[in-house]
Amino acid sequence: MARPLEFWFEFASTYSYLAAMRVQDACAARGVPLVWRPFLLGPVFAAQGLTDSPFNLFPAKGAYMWRDLERECARLGLPLRRPSRFPRGSLLAARIACAHADAPWIGAFVRATYAANFAEDRDIDTDDVIASLLGNIGQDPAPILALAATPAAKSALRAQTETARARGIFGAPSFIVGNELFWGHDRMSQAIDWAAGA
């Protein structure tokens, strides 16, 4: 019997975009239960002594990443429009995804948010943009945005980010099956194989 695959992702993460757009269908094809685990990379990087994305701190690494992302998006048939701000704030979207991780619409929301950030260059940390994304997937934005502003929703995301650190996650996307950690979108198939028992 397949084991659950935990998908740990950050909405500002370029490589998480590649994984997020494919992971639900890939898991479904193998009969692997998918668990959505949004978290924030900022505190994880801060614990490593970093004050910004490594792709900004190290220009050669950043230049490589953007070119690599162009190649990977072309290979996978995903649209790409380089965000005018990177990394873009994603606190609101992450709180919503954390609070509604079990909702039947969570996959559609995650994909819509990534598309807004990396294909449309929209500001995903504003109520207006998030409300439009929620409306487009058939959800009433008002109660969802209201919940995201509560102390409980804020605490839940902080706790999930701390859990990510405690479980050894140092970047996104990451996949966990039991106690096995797989890092990077190029390890997604391997993680699904592991979950499926292959």
Automatic annotation (TrEMBL):
Which reaction(s) does its UniProt entry say it catalyses?
2-hydroxychromene-2-carboxylate = (3E)-4-(2-hydroxyphenyl)-2-oxobut-3-enoate
The cross-references to InterPro entries, in alphabetical order and at most eight, read: DSBA-like_thioredoxin_dom (IPR001853), GST_Kappa/NadH (IPR051924), HCCAis_GSTk (IPR014440), NahD-like (IPR044087), Thioredoxin-like_sf (IPR036249)
List the CDD domains.
Answer: DsbA_HCCA_Iso
An example of a GO molecular function for this protein is: 2-hydroxychromene-2-carboxylate isomerase activity
What is the annotated signal peptide range for this record?
Answer: none
Query: Which biological processes are named by the entry's GO terms?
Result: glutathione metabolic process; naphthalene catabolic process
Is Isomerase tagged as a keyword? yes
This protein's UniProt keywords: Isomerase
Q: Which domain of life is it from?
A: Bacteria
What EC identifiers does the entry list?
A: 5.99.1.4
Q: Which PANTHER family match?
A: GLUTATHIONE S-TRANSFERASE KAPPA (PTHR42943), GLUTATHIONE S-TRANSFERASE KAPPA 1 (PTHR42943:SF2)
Q: Spell out the protein name for this chain.
A: 2-hydroxychromene-2-carboxylate isomerase
Q: Which organism is it from?
A: Lutimaribacter saemankumensis
